[in-house]
What we know:
homodimer
Amino acid sequence: MANMIAQTPEPPYYAVIFTSLRTEGDRGYGSTAERMIELASQQPGFLGVESARTMDGLGITVSYWASEDAIAGWKAHSEHKLAQETGQRVWYADYFLRIARVERDYGKRSV
Amino acid sequence: MANMIAQTPEPPYYAVIFTSLRTEGDRGYGSTAERMIELASQQPGFLGVESARTMDGLGITVSYWASEDAIAGWKAHSEHKLAQETGQRVWYADYFLRIARVERDYGKRSV
């Protein structure tokens, strides 16, 4: 469920902030994006994901992970690697990833 | 410009990941959100901001800062404090903030 606030544990944990600008047209993007969220959710150390995209094409997907090793494992996953390649070649005009260590958090999350 | 990939400097720097679920209706939200991005951009240590919201109400705004002090200064800004209070009372069904230290980044950003 990438359209909810992620139920992450107490910090510290890691966030991968993936920002992208889409090219025109779907060209297989939607189904792959859904599949990648499903697949990421099954990886060791996955803690949650949040995703949103504006109408003019800016997308932000933040995935949360228990460790840097968990992030490296997901980056190296064969099906994910293929999606990364297609993303760079077809789906994204621009993209940027930031790997960050979450040090504190607060707010109000209904379960 | 919150609808572009932020032109942040070399890490380390800080990210505030603000995730929210909106209540129904605008009730002054849109204009205040725009004003807060304008005001944040003028604060010391501000590095950039990216924002997106899905049609079903999940919003992700990531702002980037030079230091934890810069984040604390923005949190304590009087006009921002008023917006935070209204957000909790009126605009947000749920919200969550994560303060994270960006350790590395990569990608392709057109200027």
